[in-house]
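pls design
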């Protein structure tokens, strides 16, 4: 890659797809090496220290450590409830802050598309729909970009909610109740239809989905 700086600017300003940028950072370590090289001297970040490895949810604290972009990226990705779209937005914002501090005479102009999409999802997407496969499929972007032009904001939200339920085959109250975050499966780029839940014990359950066109079934294990 000849111009890493420009590539990072392109991601922040919306000229590079978030999925492509994240994939490139995994293939090309020089991208984060360059970002690390422009981090302001003395910049720190928080790191979680677990006092009791056997009960990490009970005993932990934070310490300040020297800033490391790779560790920060992992934190942004694995925060509780973080979706792929949420991670991309967090990473875009983090890089925007770093480049704005490093190049105050030429700060990036952060593109609003990810923020708009994330806000849209929070407003219209039911909490039981989501997961890596849904995020990677681009279906939410597709629905977001298909909202009829010229309608009011309220009408647009109503249309989007109905379209999401239609695309995910939701009828009435028949839908999954997840123990953890949703991981709705996709098949050939389309959402599978929720069939039923087999509750094996209070700690875990198995959710069964199928493709309406082919009858292909998949099971999703869901546990604490």
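designed seq:
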């Amino acid at each position: 890659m000849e111009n890493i700086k420009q590539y990072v600017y392109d991601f922040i300003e919306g000229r590079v797809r978030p999925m492509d940028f994240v994939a490139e950072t995994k293939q090309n370590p020089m991208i984060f090496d360059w970002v690390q090289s422009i981090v302001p001297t003395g910049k720190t970040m928080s790191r979680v220290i677990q006092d009791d490895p056997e009960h990490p949810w009970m005993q932990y604290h934070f310490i300040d450590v020297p800033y490391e972009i790779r560790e920060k990226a992992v934190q942004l990705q694995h925060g509780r409830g973080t979706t792929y779209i949420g991670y991309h937005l967090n990473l875009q914002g983090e890089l925007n802050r770093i480049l704005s501090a490093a190049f105050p005479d030429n700060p990036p102009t952060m593109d609003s598309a990810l923020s708009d999409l994330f806000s849209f999802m929070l407003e219209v997407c039911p909490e039981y729909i989501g997961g890596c496969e849904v995020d990677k499929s681009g279906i939410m972007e597709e629905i977001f970009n298909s909202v009829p032009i010229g309608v009011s904001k309220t009408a647009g939200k109503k249309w989007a909610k109905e379209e999401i339920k239609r695309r995910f085959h939701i009828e009435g109250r028949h839908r999954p109740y997840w123990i953890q975050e949703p991981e709705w499966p996709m098949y050939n780029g389309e959402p599978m239809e929720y069939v039923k839940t087999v509750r094996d014990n209070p700690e875990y359950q198995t959710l069964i989905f199928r493709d309406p066109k082919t009858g292909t079934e998949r099971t999703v294990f869901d546990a604490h």
